[in-house]
Amino acid sequence: METYTSIPEDLKLAVLERIKPTEAERKKLTAVQEELAEEVQAAAEKLCVPDIFVKMVGSAARGTWLSGTHDIDVFISFPEETHRRELEISGMEIAREVAKHAEYAEDRHAEHPYLNIIYKGFDVDLVPCFRVASACQLKSAVDRTPFHNEFVKTRIKGREDEVLLMKQFMRGGGVYGSELRTQGFSGYLTELLIIYYGSFENAVKAASCWKPGKKIDIMQHSEMEHTEPLVIVDPTDPRRNVAAALSLDKFCMFIDHCREFLKSPELKFFFPASLLPIWDKEILEKLESRKSSQLAVVFETPDVVDDVLYPQLYKMEQAAASLLNEYDFSVIKTGVWSGKPETVIMLELISDTLPNVKKRIGPPVWVREHAEKFKAKYEGAENVFGGYIEEGKYVYEIRRKYPTAKGLLEELLVNSSLGKQVHQSVSKGFVVLENAEICRLKDSDFRVFLRKWM
Fold it and tell me: By the 8 A CB rule, do 75 and 57 touch?
């Protein structure tokens, strides 16, 4: 096992200087949290909804938030015996009453509805939940969050800076965020790593040696088997893996990020240089040097939240690759980019054209019944160039139905398994751009994606 030197303290301090909230930021956050709590209680009283508790949860409540982030999670807690329908109706009524004082409001839906608002510059989620006795008695998925809050708050004190360092380090490595778009590490998972390993440095050194199947059970209370690459047993619920959303690739990207950082600890691992959009001239140069074929399937982005959209986009990405492979095109890699108004599925192929001729190999001649059926099917048929015997088998050379990848995708992609909203959007229309035609896509964020892609 490789040995590493300690991470320089001056490096940690330089990072913290850029990411640790100032006293002014903390005071503002506290004031807005108190104001929101008062607004929720006032709304509940006005609407005659009794026995409502307000709980501030998430990194803002635990002191593990990064400077410049303005997220607040407000949980509107109902008694456990409340009927779900009543919770949804009354909870949203309270949230909408609070939203009357907000700059913006949007209904969102996880397991049940919640409201997202912009309030005095803060991105606030107003989330109704049940006040259950323990995380093992959940009535909805969000009910465990207050238990996460209490577990972390009682154990993280004095280590908040270590969490900040880890969060920024993961951001620098492109692995922070558990939403389905990113498939990385959640804030809660990051906090648990610091609680378990004791410090940022210890966690990074340990992670550099991880292998798929790594399991951490802080409370040593789970015997369940999991198949994910990393298993962090939820301290409040032994049935749950906190790292369930982490993909194998992001797991391995983090291991690599840790290893490279420990070889030469530098600021760039926390704050990598921003990539510039790729220019048309560079795209053409890349196409010439790679000598492969690039395809971009472009369609209107469905109007759904990311956690609904991205699983469908990944499904479409796989469906497109499978379709191409089925018809003999060799796919090198695939990728997904989504913005407004367009989404792009990228496909790199060894070649986007194939010969018009394709071999059909039949059974051995001596397997008479099957061989004669095969021969009868192709002999003299339209679009057959000719037939012969090769290594004891009938072979017919037929005209390939889809000699171009573009033609194949244009005709058959819409019939693939794409997911409901993506299928609806693709059915309305899509275009397949080839090679230099990709220069038509001018979105600057897409051009940054394309720089990394090529």
Answer: yes
Write the DSSP string, 343-357.
Answer: EEEEEEES-SB--SE
CB half-sphere exposure, 165, CA atoms < 13 A: 27
Beta pairing class for 71-79 and 122-131: parallel
Strand partners, 122: 119
Residue type at position 143: D
The pTM assigned to this predicted structure is: 0.89
Number of H helices, E strands in the chain: 15, 15
Strand 237-241 to 230-234 pairing:
antiparallel
DSSP state of 20: S
Count Cα atoms within 13 angstroms, Cβ side, for 212.
11
Taking the C-alpha atoms of residue 293 and residue 253, their distance in angstroms, rounded to an integer, is 27
Closest CA to 94 of 155, 134, 53, 138: 53
Q: How high is the pLDDT of residue 221? A: 87
- 258 — pLDDT class (breaks 50, 70, 90): very high
Written as one letter, the residue type at 353 is: T
Kind plus residue range of the DSSP H or E element containing 86: helix 84-99
Element (H, E) at 59: helix 59-62
pLDDT tier at 3 (50, 70, 90 boundaries)?
A: low
Q: Which helix (H) or strand (E) holds 198?
A: none
Query: Which residues, other chains included, contact 57 with Cβ-Cβ below 8 Å and sequence gap of 6+?
Result: 73, 75, 145, 146, 148, 149
Backbone phi and psi for residue 81, each to the nearest 5 degrees, phi listed first = -80, -5
- Residue 2 binned pLDDT confidence (cut-offs 50, 70, 90): low
Question: Residue 321 corresponds to which tokens in the numbers above?
Answer: 């690759």
**Amino acid 223: pLDDT:** 79
pLDDT of residue 112: 81
Nearest to 122 by CA among 94, 143, 103, 148: 103
Q: What are the residues whose beta carbons fall under 8 Å from the beta carbon of 201, sequence distance 6 or more?
A: 6, 7
The per-residue b/e assignment along 347-380, b for 16 or more CB within 10 angstroms, e otherwise, is bbbeebebeeebeeebbeeeeeeebeebbeebee
